[in-house]
Amino acid sequence: NPINGSKEFVADLLSKEVPFCVITNECRYTKAKLQEKLRHILEVEVPLGQIYTAANAVSDFFARAVANGWKGNVFVIGEDGVKEGVSEALAASPGCRMITNSSVGEAVHCDFVCVGTIFTGGPNDSWTGAEQASTYLKRGAKLVYSNPDFYEVTQDGSYKFGCPMPVVNLLMQTTGCTSYNLGKPNPFMLRQAHDHLVHAVLSSLSQTERSFGQGHVDLTDVLFVGDSINTDVRIALENNIDVALVLSGTTTLEALKLSALQPNYVFDDVKALHDALSRGDLSRGGRNNFQ
Fold first, then answer.
1. Contact at 8 Å (CB) between 199 and 162?
2. Calpha distance 253→198 (Å, rounded)
């Protein structure tokens, strides 16, 4: 079920042609599949160019490495989204290959281990992948992961432990390796999402019209909306972007009061945010007195 007010909020942005981008640490789905899920939930179609996932950040990370001349293999633990992202990035170089637990087969060298979120109980939910990853890491592979989440909470309040961090922490402790997060709050993800949004906005214009555009989004005009202190609020504040926190997700008011990361605005849910925006209550650098 959609978060209260989210359907109306996104529909309003689309109808008024307000540029926006859905930035998510979700990496299990391909972007097309996530667009389909959003269409089913929100009953509107978010353009593909305005969706940027942690799987896209992983893909752009390896695409940049390949463009800079790197060649090698990547061992991936994850679902279709992150696998598609890595595969597309490596396709630009015949000297690169993606390895998964089901395709290890012969002994191969891997330069990177990439850990994404998996569906618990699914075909990729196996500790054998982590065991194979530890072998590559002990041989010198570098460890990257799609997001810094430890678990997710489902709509009925139950917990799912398919997120990267339990596996990442275990691999670091057993092999002594370091690791690098590619999802929020990494500013790399924000910059890449910005570039994708600019491309999506300008793609409908002629070359002449594009020449009059600035080619970037002024971050002082941006309001970042999210439900997590440690990813959404943090990435916004560290990049000097106004941020609104909604309490309909992972953050409680009690946790917010104890955090050094304080957003500009706090709302119970997206509907309350949308109502405030419609009334003209939000402004650059503004704040509300949420109790």
1. no
2. 34
Per-residue pLDDT at 205:
66
* Element (DSSP H or E) covering residue 30: none
pTM for the model: 0.87
Cis peptide before 94 (omega within 30 of 0): no
pLDDT tens, position by position, 213-268:
566 678 888 999 999 999 999 999 999 999 999 998 889 999 999 999 999 999 99
Six token digits for residue 48: 């593909």
Write the Ramachandran bin of 29: left for phi over 0, alpha for psi from -120 to 50, otherwise beta.
beta
> Considering only CA atoms, which of 80, 158, 83 is closest in space to residue 119?
80
- Tokens representing residue 230 in the block: 């440690």
Element (H, E) at 112: strand 112-115
Sign of the torsion angle spanned by Cα atoms 190, 193, 199, 202: negative
Where does 151-291 show beta strands of DSSP type E?
Answer: 152-153, 159-160, 179-181, 223-226, 242-246, 265-267
pLDDT tens column, 29-51: 999 999 999 999 999 999 999 99
- Percent of the chain whose predicted confidence (pLDDT) is above 90: 76
Measured CA angle at 26 (ends 142, 252), to 5 deg: 110
Contacts of 110 (CB under 8 A, 6+ apart): 72, 73, 74, 75, 99, 136, 139, 141
Which sign, positive or negative, has the C-alpha torsion 196, 201, 203, 209? Answer: negative
**Which among 181, 219, 173, 215 is positioned nearest to 198, based on CA atoms?**
215
Does residue 133 register a pLDDT over 70?
yes
Contact status, residue 62 vs residue 86, Cβ threshold 8 Å: yes
Q: Which amino acid is at 103?
A: S
